[in-house]
Queue: 2 jobs
Job 1
Amino acid sequence: MAITATQIKDLREATGVGFLDCRKALEDANGDFDKAVDFLRERGLAKAAKRADRDASEGVLDIYDHGNGRVGVMVEVNCETDFVARSDAFRTFAHDVALQIAAASPRWVTEDQVPQSELDHEAEIARNRAIEEGKPEKILDRIVEGRLSKFKDETVLLKQPFIKNEDITIEQHLHEAVAAIGENIVIRRFVRWEVGESSN
């Protein structure tokens, strides 16, 4: 059954869960709205979304070095209370994020942090490449959209497949951690250094 954008939008508004999770829930529920909501609640995602507006000002800096000091990562992950910040589950999650950054080299935490200039540049490259490959004019926009989506999946931390379980994204791993720990969790910022890279 084809899932419509309106169905996805309605489910997102009802649960606060991301687009891809809502689409998957609706597909698994054959378009049944109530079953899709139940599916998201069972996975803890709807509950996680309700916590997303709570203040997260405690947390940890996780520092990780990889390859005998060839790659270094520092990431700030926040939660609501000092009690949770000291818990093993929270620290394990923060360390998972640091490992992800070391291995997958994201450039931004969230999709909305990607500068428009970067997207414009990538779109131009994608369009020129499609023209070079002889693709028909009428499908160029779709090709560009697909390549931009792939660019975001590779460069935005929350959209990347989780290196320890590639069936889920880092965003889904974050929602699972929120549901398990019971507090809002925010990946605030990170830096990644690699020996020999330029500083710009």
Job 2
Amino acid sequence: MGSSSRGTLPPKWNGLLFATNGDQRDWGSQYWVWTTEMHYVPLFAADMIDLTDTYFNMYVRQLPQCEIAARQRWGVPGAYFPETTAFDGPTTLSDDVAAEFHNVFLGRKVAAEISPRAFAMCRFDSHLRASTAPQKGRYSWISHVASSGSELAIQAWWRYRYTGDRQWLRSHAYPMLRGTVEFYRHLIRKEADRPFSPVGYSCS
């Protein structure tokens, strides 16, 4: 990490800078939060905080696009960090294409009904492309992961707790915490409680 995490962008988890097969990477070119964070979480305890700069800077730069993604994909305010994105964040869609994906995400439309225009617009965004995969149901392995932003935000909070840097709290940690909490706060819907009915048990 010391030799590969001091640039503008964090290293890709699948090989860092030491991939031996050129730019061929089995999991593609986009960043996965789950696999990228594995390199950075241990750096707090190792007191190598400066090596996390490139990681957090990339995601903070994505915040405006993630706020747009929250509205376009889910119809809510806040910031939605997809599990997979390019280095510059989720794709900003045109209004008509955003409406199509919004309906897919909420289960009103199946992925097979996505228009050719929408499919073309999402071809370079693995998060959206997975949502259009021809499979049963409306979910893919990453399409409805809504926890990635909270993982990033809590890690930003950890960094603040390790350093006590209030300026960094204002510029990085708090915007991510606020954005992801607002996303969750508006995403949930309160419904009537349902009675518990255990399957496979009989009460006599």
